[in-house]
Amino acid sequence: MKTGVKLFSGILFLLAWAIPAFSGVVINEIMYHPASTNVLEEWLELYNTGPTNVNISGWQITKGVAFTFPTNTMLAAGGYLVVAADGPTFASKHPGVANFVAGWSGTLGHSLKLSDKTGQVINNIEFYDEGDWAVRVLGAAGVPGALDRYAGLGWVWFAPHDGAGASLELINPNLPNTYAQNWGPNKDTDSTPGRANSIAASNVAPFITQVAHSPVVPQPTDPVTVTTRVVDEHTTGLTVTLQWRVDGAASFNALTMADDGAHGDGLAGGGIYGAIVPAQPNNTIV
Length: 286
Fold this sequence. Notes:
Number of helices: 1
Distance between the termini: 20 Å
Low-confidence stretches: 1-22, 145-149
Shape: elongated
Strand content: 35-45%
Largest sheet: 6 strands, mixed
Helix content: under 10%
């Protein structure tokens, strides 16, 4: 007898107000693939989200490029500082931007690490041009990045920050910048070195990450735990609801997901929400 229940999940969110809980020096904008493909035009930008000035003399950027910040480098509260691959190239490309340092070695890949002068990691991110960092579009022959097949059409990843002129910008610097949902391309297919990002916002939709269900292959007698991490500016008062239904059913069932340590969510208050779907008959698709 064949056994197993197939499960697919969808999650809806409501939120309430609370207080942001993140501040410090962060990587805020990245020009990792200039339209010209000239690696001397690459740069990244730091932003100080904290309330006080920070002396970043001796800090280092590693893992991607190598750069040590010179003596007497201060990053003011609420201030921006660009780190460019090449000083003359950056100055020529952005003549109105004076708040920059330059002269790294290497070229930008898809990861960056910022450490203070003691070696403590301040910010460590990985970024890409596919998946949550891009969107799927129906491409056509002759369009950059499109697949030249299926009579010139094909579904492709499209990311304006990947060689189409835009920088990759952080949206809400008061939330962790390790989530792809907190990044996007410059809205004008341009860049904003040394100043506020074009897509900056203080209130964003919750980040829905690490969605999973367990057991991965449930048996007909197994209830299924669905979990997800929810990240938002508002750290209390969140209401998270799991909507699920058996394939073909006219309506969804609603389960409140909890972060209380009793719904397969690990430790209470850990930011992971869980709900338990009852066991279903053999060969049910949920």
